Protein 1
Amino acid sequence: MRRRHLLQAGALCAWSAFEPVARAESYPSKSVQIVVPFPPGGTNDLLARVMAQSLGERMPGNFVIDNRAGGAAGSVGAQAVAAAKPDGYTLLLGNTASLAINQSVYPNLRYDPQRDFEPISVVGGSSLVLVVNSKVPARNVAEFVQLLRSSPGQYSYASAGAGSPLHLAGELFKYRTGAEMLHVPYRGTAPAYTDLLSGRISAMFDNTTTAVQHARAGTIRALAVTGARRSALFPQVPTLAEEGFKDIEVLVWFGLVAPKSTDAAIISRLSRAVATIAKGDETRRRLLEFDIDPWGSTPEEMRRFMASESAKWKAVVQRSNIRLE
């Protein structure tokens, strides 16, 4: 009798160890929703559609996009995924704001990126570009910083909203350079550009894909990009580090996460798929069209990166006393 019980217990343990692997091998057996916490048409949405198509070609299931815009810098969609069933069939394609900034900016945020998600992979990242109105008398970053220092209170910079990566990039720039600029938040980049082009606003940190059309028209001047490497859309524009400002690196990055407690085997399978896709020539070509450098990290690499980014932006938010409801 005892021997039979031991055999049954052993069989149960063997099945318990096998079951997660079996689930992962059959995953996905139905459609997987990738929640994009922004409206259709933006960079987050376009990137998610590229990844959904590539994952669907590589894995047996169908990956569909679920746009859940609702304000608060992507918090509404992120919160929905944090509360979803942890079965691998609801994922979030988040970004710097929803996965690293929002918890410091919004005191009543109803999710914690590091506590409520299982990281899958950082999909890619993109620089911002510092642009000024073409009439601003500065041809490079050093001249712009000197202009700001010598004329405190006379220059302003726009952003697509308080607490956004574009806003915090400006605050980090001010802190690291000792320069002064007045922040003017707008509801998106379109109205910000109206005032930037007219000269009512002096400068802005913006996504390269949006800024490039204005730069090519000659209505704004690009002074530097914020990443470690030059942008494919601005190959002649130096990085801030090349200009002598080595501690102002800013990336807008995009990451895929699942609800907390999602099976580790499913997380691993998705992570390997994303890494393979990110290294593929076709995906790389399509992402570089959006000026996104494909990464494809492991879950643990993403966990460490999220923690580092969260700490970095928390310090900026606290120093600038930014709090939103």
Note: Residues 127-225 form a domain with the D-Maltodextrin-Binding Protein; domain 2 fold (CATH 3.40.190.10).
Protein 2
Amino acid sequence: MGPQAGAALLQSIICQTDASLDQQHLPVILMSFPGHIVDRTAFLEGETDVNPAYAIAGIIQRLESSGAEVIAMACNTSHAPAIFDVIIEELDRIRSRVNIVHLPLAACSYIRNNCPQMRRIGLMTTNGSWKSGVYSNILRNWGYEVVIPDPSFQNDVIHRMVYDQKFGIKANPVSIPSEVMVLAEKAIAYFEDRRTEAILLGCTEFSMIISGKDAKGMRIIDSIDTAARALIREATGFEEMGISAGFRQTYLSGK
């Protein structure tokens, strides 16, 4: 998946761990095999028949063999049911015992647990996550108003920030081009005009360009940071966000 997303998740784990010495930090294994995994949005949009779930499940198996017990995938789009359900089926088939931290569930749970006054949530995701409804289904089932960009704005502004072949984030991992920042300003204004109280960054690349200081009073919920918090809780003995290998779709009920 996006190699920078994995590095960002690791950095967030380090920054959010309550530690004052090196030895107090959590043991972490980061595996990055981006060339093994086809683009998740390309699969969901029918541009390839290869489901990335099988390669992802194989990497999770490598992590488990290396001693990992709690695992997160640093890609929101991989949690779309067409991919995520197959990952879980593969883990069931090999009788995996790892817990998977579900990024969308962790982010939505963070809002519910820490932002009780907020009811109108805007979504910034890739086209794959947008079409799958992985975030909007959870939020609506929990009683939130969800602000979702219309199809043209979603494709031409939000998705383009990540995937434009010339200036998109994936094509420019070292320095973010000015064109991306212009689109980011348009996105923020779009949600502001629709009285959005919080913007949920449902794509790991967005955390590279959008922060709370840019959001014109709207709260920014970064799925990378909420995933890191959930991983830390799981690894230190709490079981709030972990999803066992037998998990299916029960998270959509909000139970």
Note: The chain has two domains: 3-102+225-253, 104-223.
